[in-house]
Structure of Acid phosphatase (Class B):
Amino acid sequence: MDSGRFCLVLILSCLISGVVSQSILQILPENRISGDRKTLLRDDDIFCDSWRFSIETNDAGIWYNIPARCVKFVQNYMLGERYASDSDQVAEDSLTFANTIEITGDGKDAWIFDIDETLLSNLPYYEIHGFGSEVFDEKTFDEWVDLAEAPALPASLKLYNELQRLGFKLILLTGRAEFQRSATEKNLLLAGYGNWEKLILRGASDIGKTAEMYKSEKRKEEEEEGGYRIHGNSGDQWSDLLGFAMATRSFKLPNPMYYIP
């Protein structure tokens, strides 16, 4: 290659490299900070929405606390239209899948539901307890459960009824303890749920197990001993859905208030 052509290629390479580098650098965090730090710090909504995305997709893994700057964001999300809309979308996707299943009629086509933040909303409790930002108090939460006043999540209630109409057997699998069975049944009925196939709560032998292990074992029992085919599983925690004996499809409802392993 002659020197003239070499110089031309070198100049073009530098120009292209500069353009590409500039386009990448423009989206790096340090460039946003150096541009206008006050704007970055003021815009907590962007940070908190990205944080919520991270926990909902399980990219964050185990997490313990809502970032202090995101408490107000979580409150606005839970009380606003976005939470309802996200829940509606999960229910719509669930029903779309359910409609692809050929129900055999033998009573073994099952769908599993978690209860808290899935069928029932504990938002009235969390409204006075920092929307998950406070340290969890088992005593006050148990007192809330005993009231049996948790409302239904509208999207979940609609999905629940549609699945029953299609012929699915609905198995309710909750992390609540066996001593809370009466209050839980009462609350479910008052909220509009009925005719479930089974309501499974933690027994004495389940105490101390992680939610993922406990729920995996119960799903396996239903498959092996009950003969159920678990087509769908709905829950607000990844521990409701992951592990073994998983459903054909699992559907994660939004919950930025707390994480249960």
Notes: The two ends are 63 Å apart (CA to CA). DSSP finds twelve helices and five strands in the chain. Residues 144 and 247 are 31 Å apart (CA to CA).
